[in-house]
TrEMBL record:
It comes from Pseudomonas fontis. Keywords: Acyltransferase, Membrane, Transferase, Transmembrane, Transmembrane helix. Pathway: Lipid metabolism. It comes from the Bacteria. PANTHER family: 1-ACYL-SN-GLYCEROL-3-PHOSPHATE ACYLTRANSFERASE, PHOSPHOLIPID_GLYCEROL ACYLTRANSFERASE DOMAIN-CONTAINING PROTEIN. This is 1-acyl-sn-glycerol-3-phosphate acyltransferase.
Length: 269
């Protein structure tokens, strides 16, 4: 009997995490719906101009995202470690991150109280997310020149902007592939660029996996803020296309190096 009980513990833990993961996704969807139907209409009744309303909306979303992270941690879905968060959230700062999982943006927005973010276009049509992304005035990643202009203008106006240069989640087992749009935006508007390396071990919630395909053990999310990069150091190296290419290559190599270092340290006995 004691042997059977001990063998059942991993299975019980798996199903508890599966239930907690399902609950997390349900809460996320219902939370977005409640924000659109209840919270944001109430916030709109408060005094203040459009800027004040936008800041309120972003702070509400940020706080709820951080509460969501705490919920996932306390229910056993994940553990996490964060290094250098105090460097995030400065005016005119572009936060550039790799994109290994579905919860990357939740962590970053949860840490930065008044951040703008370039998000995928489908979120503006999703009934559960369209309220938050519209009220916060996040930028739709539709690949147009208007998107590039809006992102550069946000940085020039002193906003902190989060962007994932890959444009979508990383394919497991492959190195991140950066599009040049993020570098072009940075050269046009960013005061500083701050790279953030995200790691998830074991990998889950990737582009190739459904939400219910959880790993055999609890995942650990790691967020490490790197040193600032001065975009002007690249802007002075020639015309815009060349400067953009050089900056994009620099960012790409930075993340490949960081992620490769992590893989080597994990492989060591």
């Amino acid at each position: 009997m004691e042997l059977a009980a001990s063998l059942s513990k991993p299975r019980d833990a798996y199903y508890r995490r599966l239930l907690a993961t399902a609950t997390s996704f349900a809460l996320f969807g219902l939370g977005g719906l409640c924000l659109r139907l209840l919270v944001f209409p109430l916030l709109a009744c408060l005094p203040g101009d459009a800027l004040a309303h936008r800041r309120r909306a972003r702070r509400v979303v940020s706080r709820l995202f951080w509460l969501f992270v705490q919920f996932m941690q306390r229910t056993g879905v994940l553990t996490y470690s964060i290094s250098g968060a105090e460097k995030l959230g400065r005016p005119g700062q572009m936060v550039i991150a790799n994109h290994p999982s579905l919860i990357d943006v939740v962590f970053l927005i949860g840490l930065i109280r008044d951040a703008n973010c370039v998000v995928k276009q489908s979120l503006f049509r999703n009934p559960f997310t369209r309220g938050p992304v519209r009220e916060t005035q996040y930028i739709s990643n539709d690949g147009s020149m208007d998107m590039l202009d809006a992102a550069a203008a946000a940085l020039q106006g002193g906003q902190c902007l989060i962007i994932f240069p890959e444009g979508t989640r990383t394919v497991p087992g492959q190195a991140p592939a950066f599009h040049r749009g993020a570098a072009a935006i940075a050269l046009r508007g960013a005061k500083i660029i701050t790279p953030v390396t995200l790691r998830l071990n074991p990998t889950t919630l990737t582009k190739a996996e459904p939400w219910y395909s959880i790993p055999a053990r609890r995942m650990h999310f790691s967020l490490q803020v790197g040193d600032d990069i001065d975009p002007q150091a690249f802007a002075s190296q020639g015309l815009a296309p060349r400067a953009s290419r050089l900056l994009n290559d620099h960012l790409h190599q930075h993340f490949i190096k960081e992620l490769a270092t992590d893989e080597r340290s994990t492989a060591q006995p």
